[in-house]
Every structure is written in C-alpha cells, then in structure tokens.
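Wed. Picked up where I left off yesterday with Anti-sigma-W factor RsiW. The coffee machine is broken again, so keeping this brief.
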Amino acid sequence: MTSCPKQIVHLMHEYLDGEIEEATKKELKLHLDTCADCKKHYAELKKTIALVQSASHIEAPAGFTAKVMALLPREGKKIGIERWFRHHPFLTAASLFLLLMGGGMVSMLEQDDNHFAFTKNTELKVENETVIVPAGTVIEEDIVVKNGDIRIEGAVDGDVTVINGERYMASAGNVTGEIEEIDRLFGRLWFELKSLFK
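Structure written out below (tokens, as returned):
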C-alpha cells in the first residue's frame, strides 16, 4: 500500500461514500484486483463502516443509569443545606426575621417579667401587689394586671387579664367580659401580639 498512489485511498473513500463516478469505479476495481495491500485496507474500511452502523442500534442495558448514579459519591449535608439557602432566599430571610423577632420578644418579656404593673384607674385600690376592685364600684374598661393578683369585689364591664398572678372573685364580684389568666411564656407572647394589633 505504501507503493500505491494516494489517489487510490481517496477513490476508496469516494466509493464507500457513494460519490464515485463509473469510470473511476472501474479504475479502483482493477487496482484492488491487482494489489493485495489495498484490497486488505478496503476490506478493513468496509468492516469499520459496518461496525459503526451497527453500533447505532446498541442501547444501554436496563438500569444502567441508575447503577452509575448509585456509584457516584453522595453529596454532603452541608452542601445540600447551602444549596437550599441559595435557592430559597425569601424563605431564608423570612425565617431569620422571625427568629430575631421571636428572640427580641422573649428578651423583652423576660426583662418586663419582674415588675408589678396594672391598668391605671382611680377607682382601683392596690395593696401588696394585689389590685382590688372595691365593692359597689363599676370599672368600665379592660383591666390588665402583670406580676400581681386581682381581687374583684365590685363589677368590671370589660375583660380582665392576669399575667403571672391569680384572680380572686368575691361572691358579689361580677365581670361582663372574659377573664384570662396567663402564666406561660407562649400565652404571654400571644397576649402581647394580640394587644399590638388591637
């Protein structure tokens, strides 16, 4: 094949591509009949083409993709969490906001936790951190008592809320609204949130 002209290899390619003319086709066949090396090379080219054409019908075995994916190394938890934060920035910001606001509210409630406070009204009396609604009086507003007790001997035309304390009702005492005792952190937090939106 080394002594053969390069044009013969070019003619083989044209013949295999189906682009050869009739005159050059005869010339190629004559050369292949006389040259064993070129005939062998031509046969190898035909085998290669047949192999490539048959390979297009080959499919991967069932489950091949799943097996390959199973063999890949697993992604670390840290990377998965970081990706989640990058893909959900709004949820990340909202949860961070809620966390900081919740921490601030709890801190505020703990600071406010130790001092005695109540709704200011001239008709209410106070004795040793106990707010007293005297007998025969009617309080026409809501009463809130923080870190103390309330004793109702008269009447309250509104709601009574006691935070971290007790309520005592005299037999003649009367409340027309709701009476609520709050002694847990979440109950107090809920009360503070409701009072913000009133």
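Quick read: The longest helix spans residues 89-111.
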